[in-house]
Design a protein that fits this description.
This protein is an alpha/beta fold. 33% of the residues lie in helices and 25% in strands. Strands 2-6-5-3-4-9-8 form a seven-stranded mixed sheet, sandwiched between helices. Strands 20-21-24-25-26-19-27 form a seven-stranded antiparallel sheet. A five-stranded mixed sheet has the order 11-10-12-13-14, sandwiched between helices. It binds 1-O-phosphono-alpha-D-glucopyranose and zinc ion (ZN).
């Protein structure tokens, strides 16, 4: 058995997006597809020789095969050790934790996040650096460049590595360490939250349902919520991971987590509901009859974080992606801490977290996290909410009402137009960009436009600039519309329209969001001519 050198040629379109390279599973299963990209990852980081990596994925279809290929390629490149989750499984935050905890040179995570899994669905791969966070744009650009010039890769020729038992084994000269995917993560959570208070909460009859959506968080949630915190069996629903996520769409929002939403609005609704996505980095929070938008959740967590032991010292600052509602900015202002606005994608939080400028950060797309890892973290958000509920001893609905009364409310909704013809979507954005300069001062649906621009970000830590990060239209009085094209879609283009309006209170704080946002929704269509330009009458998904 030996190292094989395989000749290959570039495959078009291997350009990592918002979070790694994400394509259809069949694309990934194509000849040299995975191999070319993995070789380009190793090339971009200056080789694998002598290095230690973490490897794991969310268990979707092809995860097991991809793990074997990557192990053999790492072995051929001279890597010293790969730490891999048992069965090839690691949630994204657990992988981030292991990368950091074990002082490794980075890790490869296999996931297409919340996209469906299966041979006819999606797959993905991304590289996270030694800080545990997604590769910065400079590095993903290097990877892409290498994929366009690749002529060959090396792979160890040998039998599959046994992923089923814990402990050390080998692949060529490389050590493969198979670890329990849950243990280190659960320990990290125990260090951040008051597990005795949480145990007491459940012992006192507090009820919750956690929907793992047949994805990777099943084992994590079962261990932490049911075994360590004593929540009754059955608290975790859909807790057995499957390669196609039970045929579902593992995206924790009211549209896709229908089963949980039905429970939470039903007659026997528990006190608290939560869900996580395919790879465990997203979260949905819902109280009895009270859905909490991710933007509001970030604001509530920021306002109450010091109730959890891990954050008792206070927050250094907070950050949100630009399209995320500005609710958390209000909290930061009240706390006298900095609020950073970054482009969409978790990788932009990395520098701020590393530099100690922010402690909490989040995105409107159900991602919330802190400096404990360098990824968003679904279960972490759930545990922080539980810690807050245990301390405040009021319901989720009461927490929200109190929050809005204190800070005002940012009504918020995101409208997604999926699988739009790429040409049409690009034309819409180009047209919009061309008229940006003329918008300020014009009146749309009765409200004056105050400012309009294309968002660009100057990283305060490394000085890098990211341009073309979405169009913002800001109205007098605080309403805002953001338009951008998704960087994670795998079919055509996805147009995202983010709608926000602000109410100071005390009146008008408890209206349904779609009603409160009616004018803004109409304004978005008037400005971007969505219907005309896309041929769509309404969004495919509203969150
Ligand atoms: C989406 C979300 C973004 C998130 C990313 C990865 O990206 O909008 O907030 O970081 O998924 O989970 P998009 O498809 O909008 O580019
Ligand atoms: Zn995810």
């Amino acid at each position: 058995m030996s190292v094989l050198s395989i000749e290959t040629t570039p495959i078009e379109g291997q350009k990592p997006g918002t979070s790694g390279l994400r394509k259809t599973t069949r694309t990934f299963m194509g000849k040299h597809y995975l191999e070319n990209f993995v070789a380009s990852i190793f090339g971009a980081i200056g080789g694998a020789e002598g290095k230690t990596f973490v490897l794991g994925g969310d268990g979707r279809y092809f995860n097991d095969r991809a793990v074997q290929v990557i192990l053999r390629m790492a072995a051929a490149e001279g890597a010293a050790r790969v730490i891999v989750g048992q069965g090839g499984i690691l949630s994204t935050p657990a992988a981030s934790n292991l990368i950091r905890k074990r002082g490794t040179d980075g890790g490869i995570i296999l996931s297409a996040s919340h996209n469906p899994g299966g041979i006819d669905a999606d797959f993905g791969i991304k590289f996270n650096g030694p800080n545990g966070g997604p590769a910065p744009e400079s590095l993903t650009a290097k990877m892409h460049d290498l994929t366009t010039r690749i002529v060959g890769y090396r792979i160890w020729e040998g039998a599959d590595v046994d992923m089923s038992s814990l402990g050390e084994t080998s692949c060529g000269d490389m050590t493969v360490e198979v670890v329990d995917p849950v243990a280190d993560y659960a320990q990290l959570m125990e260090g951040l939250f008051d597990f005795s208070a949480l145990k007491a909460l459940f012992a006192g009859g507090f009820t919750m349902r956690f929907d793992a959506m047949h994805a990777v968080t099943g084992p994590y949630a079962t261990e932490i919520l049911e075994r360590r915190l004593g929540a009754p069996a059955g608290t975790v629903m859909n807790g057995s991971p499957s390669p196609d996520f039970g045929g579902g769409h593992p995206d924790p929002n009211p549209t896709w987590a229908k089963e949980l939403m039905a429970v939470m609005t039903g007659p026997d609704a528990p006190d608290f509901g939560a869900a996580s996505d395919g790879d465990g980095d997203r979260n949905m929070i819902v109280g009895r009859g009270a859905y909490v938008t991710p933007s509001d959740s970030l604001a509530v967590l920021a306002a109450n974080a010091t109730l959890a032991p891990g954050y008792a010292k206070g927050l250094a600052g907070v950050a949100r992606s630009m399209p995320t509602s500005r609710a958390v900015d209000r909290v930061a202002e009240a706390l006298g801490i900095e609020a950073y606005e970054t482009p969409t994608g978790w990788k932009f939080f990395g520098n701020l977290l590393d530099a100690g400028k922010v402690t909490l950060c989040g995105e409107e797309s159900a991602g919330t996290g802190s400096d404990h890892v360098r990824e968003k973290d679904g279960l972490w958000a759930v545990l922080l909410w539980l810690n807050i509920l245990a301390e405040r001893k009021i319901s989720v609905a009461e927490i929200m009402a109190d929050h809005w009364k204190t800070y005002g409310r940012n009504y918020y909704s995101r409208h997604d137009y999926e699988a739009v013809e790429t040409g049409k979507a690009n034309a819409l954005m180009e047209r919009l960009e061309a008229k940006l300069a003329d918008l300020p001062g014009t009146i749309v649906q009765g409200t004056t436009v105050e400012a309009a621009d294309q968002f660009a970000y100057d990283d305060p830590v490394d000085g890098s600039r990211s341009e073309g990060q979405g169009v913002r239209v800001i109205f007098e009085g605080g309403a805002r519309i953001v338009f951008r094209l998704s960087g994670t879609g795998t079919q055509g283009a996805t147009l995202r329209v983010y709608l926000e309006d602000r109410v100071e209170g005390p009146e008008g704080l408890d209206r349904p969001a779609d009603e409160a946002l009616q004018t803004i929704i109409a304004a978005a269509d008037e400005i971007a001519q969505i219907r005309e330009m896309t041929g769509r009458n309404k969004p495919d998904v509203t969150t």
